[in-house]
Structures are given as structure tokens and as C-alpha cells.
Amino acid sequence: MTEEILINVTPPETRVAVVENGVVQEIIIERADRSGLVGNIYKGRVCRVLPGMQAAFVDIGLARAAFLHASDICSAALNDIRTDQIHELVHEGDMLMVQVVKDPLGTKGARLTTNVSLASRYLVCMPALTNTGVSQKIEDEEERRRLREILQRHVDAHPNEGGFIGRTAAEGVGEEVLMKDMAFLAKLWHGIQQRCAQTNHIQLIHDDLPLTLRALRDLVTPEMERIRIDSRAMFEQALPFAANYIPEIQDRIEHYQGARPLFDLYGIEEEIKKALLRKVSLKSGGHLVIDQTEAMTTIDINTGAFVGHRNLEETIFKTNLEAAQAICRQLRLRNLGGIIIIDFIDMGEEEHKRQVLRALEKCLARDHAKTHITEVSSLGLVEMTRKRTRESLEHVLCEPCPCCGGRGSIKTAETTCYEIFREILREARQFDVETLLVLASQEVVDRMLDEESAHLAELEAFIGHPIRMQAEALYTQEQYDVVLI
Fold first, then answer.
1. What's the burial of 413, exposed, middle or buried (CB within 10 Å: 0-12/13-18/19+)?
2. Cβ burial, residue 94 (10 Å; 0-12/13-18/19+)
3. Would you call 438 helix, strand, or coil by DSSP?
4. Radius of gyration over every alpha carbon of the chain, rounded to an integer in angstroms
5. Contact 92, 49 (CB under 8 A)
């Protein structure tokens, strides 16, 4: 498998695409006026404590107060207070060092923790803990044991520097390199503590790397063939960063200078447009329908034009297998998180159900976000969760439709006409008028003067007053006004 990272940089936004075997798998977009906050460390003030929710709201200088649950409060950060009651852990007015673990999503503020973690290329440092661990994606038991021993030796020798987790990229890395990483993280944490101690105000203490450098730190894998950056300024920042922290990829970083835009060259602009559609076509002729709501995301699979060559059960099985792969790609591409309900086409054979679930799990193994899948439910649904730390692609690029308010549909012209008729009756009964003027969209006015003309004439006769119509170009199909003149 060949992998590439493509980085498109313009002053207002940076876009990163992960391409595997020529197919885009992941897109991350960060805008200058709304950059990601995950990993940032703040000194914040507790502005409200909610015992009923076992949570507190903390002012960290953002538009909305951030959310801190009692389970995200590390006792080591509060002089080892041993309790799980929020009103005993924090009080209004307290100043805390907190880290953002989830960006603000929709109407919700950022999610916080006091259990700070600092990431480098190979390790994650947890200053408040003394635990060690190794990424579950490293499967070789001998390698896991080697890494755990190296980390534990360092923790035993330097207990004040906190605990460490070996990231996936640490697999096969020598002890000397890991020791340098640990020393770097310890120095970084010491500097953060000093800055926090020197201020008594709400303040950003430490911000994470810009998106381009985070992509080099977090997304580069051993299979990565090259990283192409279309901005010379960012390319010149990436080279020394790679030389210091990821020297093995330094010669794979390229400055793209082609006349054709980088994302156009790889067809990524078209993929972004497709990722905003509800319907995703499958090669077999079937399709997915993806609906994203505030509570959850639902994915429905349909055979569509695919009729198969053997029998119905075989057709359904093959469609579901193809859909499992497509779903995993769409989850990464659209950055869908939270609760996800997948409605596979009903399968009669238990072995087919097991194979579809295994295919789903295998594809999700390459996902950077943590996922959890349940078995097929009694209703034939697969329930899963995917960790959500930043907004989905749709939420970054789109906003609710001003016509339908995000419902996905609008009232028909016929429905609006009947609402107008009822409004005219109300107005005529309440006020003494000579003429009524109806302002509405062109579609509604056309229907009133055509299909509903007989009803309009009856209404005029009933109220004893003329009704005039006027089309308004800026009105939606649901908007209207009845004016008394």
C-alpha cells in the first residue's frame, strides 16, 4: 500500500488530505479564524458548578464556557483530593490548568480535562500519572514488552516527570531516540508549569502545533511514500521540524510547484463535493444514504441497481461487504463521530453477518480515531461509536439551510397557499379593510392565480374584499405576508 499526505495552504485555511493507493481517505480542514483547539492548555476560571450534572463550566476565554466533568478532573492536580463529587473538587472562582480534549461542536462548548497529556512523535506524556502503556495498534507482544520496559525504567528513575504511552510510531524505535523524546516532553511540561504559575488570569498557556506540523507528527506512517506541500513558507517550516523530530521522513517532503492546483491534480476537490452529499454510490450499483443529525449519524445500505448473478442472499451479502469498506472510508473522509447506526441489508445466514462485521472491523483498524462496534442487533442494526474530537467536514464547510432551517425539506407551494387562505380569514375578521395584498414567492403566487384561482375567488366573495397578489423574488416558498391596504 502506498500512502501520501497532500497539504494545501492558503492564508485563510490549511487543508490536509491522506491518500492511500490513489484514493483519498481523510480530509482535515482548519481555518485561520477557527483553528482547532484540541491539545491547547489554558488557565481558566470556574464560572459555574452543576452538582446535578457532576460537572462545571470553565471560562477559558472562548465565546462559550467550556465543559469539565468530574470524571475528567485528576486528583493529582487538586492536591490529591479523594472524592468524585464535583462540588468538593472545584468551586466557583477557582483557577485551574485545563486542556481541551474536544473542540466546540455545534452549540456545545469545548470539553476539558485537568489530566494534561503532551504528545510527541513517538510518545504521549501524562505528567499527573506514573503509568506506562503501549498503543494497542502495536500487535507484536515482544515489541510491546520491549517498549514497556524502556518506559518503565525511565519512570522509575524520574518519577516526577509523569507516565508515558508509546504511540504506534514508536514500534521498532531505538531506546536512545525514545529517551530524547521523553527529555523533550519533560522540558516542555516544565515550561508549561512555569507559565501557568506566573499568571492569575484566564490565558492560553500552550497551544498545539499548526495543522501542517500536526499532520507530520500524527499522520505519517512507515508506508508513507511522500508528503507534498504547495506552500514554500510552510515547506520551509516543515523541513527543520522533520529534521528535529522525524528525520526518517525528511527526504520524503516535497515542495509542489506545479501549475495545476495540488488538490485538483489528485481529484480531491471533487471528493470534497461528494462527501457533502447524502447518497454515496457503490461500484456494484448499490448505494449508501448517510444522514447526520445532532444526536447520531445513520447509514442505510440499499442494493439499488445491483441484482447479482446467483441468488438474493448472495447479492445482499456482496452489497453489504462492499458497503462495509465504503462506510469506513466515509467515516474518516467526513469525520463522522459519536453514535453511528448502520442499517445493513437483512442477511439470513449467521456466517454472512460475521463476515460483514469482520470486514467492518478490519477496515476500521486503519482509522486514527478510536471506534467501538457492537454485534448485529435484534433489529438487524449495527451500533458503533467513533471518538469525536473536532467538527465533521459538513459542519466545517456548511451551515443550516436558511429556507428549511436544516430540516432537509420545505413546505410545498400548495401548503403555503392554504396557510395564506387561513391568514386572510383571520385578518378579515379582526380588521376593517378595503383590500388585502399577499406578498409571497413566485411559485406560490403562480399557484394562487392558477390551480387555486377558484378557491381564491370564493374567498374574495366570502370576505367581501378584493385580494391582490405580489411576487417577491427574495421570499422562500414558505415565506409570505398579508398586508392590509
1. buried
2. middle
3. strand
4. 29
5. yes
Examine the pLDDT at 293 and tell me if it is beyond 90: no
CA distance 49 to 56: 4
Return the closest-CA partner of residue 17 out of 25, 226, 9: 25
Summarised one tens digit per residue, pLDDT across range 434-481 is 899 999 999 999 999 999 999 999 999 999 999 999 999 999 999 999
Determine the pLDDT at residue 82: 61
Burial of residue 99, with CB atoms counted within 10 A of its CB: 0-12 exposed, 13-18 middle, 19 or more buried: buried
- Residues sharing a CB contact under 8 Å with residue 121, sequence separation 6 or more, in sequence order: 167, 169, 181, 217, 245, 246
Average pLDDT over residues 174-195: 90
How far apart CA 199 and CA 344 sit, in angstroms, is 55
The three cell numbers locating residue 80: 490529591
Sign of the Cα pseudo-torsion (387, 392, 396, 400, in order): negative
Amino acid 308: pLDDT: 54
Summarised one tens digit per residue, pLDDT across range 385-410 is: 998 878 889 988 988 888 888 788 89
DSSP secondary structure of 301-332 = EE-TT---SS-HHHHHHHHHHHHHHHHHHHHH
Amino acid at 104: P
Tell me the C-alpha distance between 416 and 469, whole Å: 14
> Which grid cell is 68?
469539565
Distances in whole angstroms, Cα of residue 140 to Cα of each of 134, 172, 290, 292, 363: 11, 10, 37, 38, 19
**Three-state secondary structure call for residue 217:** helix
Give yes or no for a contact between 440 and 480, defined as CB atoms under 8 angstroms apart: yes
Q: Which pLDDT value is given to residue 389? A: 75
pLDDT for 363 equals: 92
Residue 86 near residue 50, CB atoms below 8 Å? yes
> Cell numbers at residue 248, please?
526518517
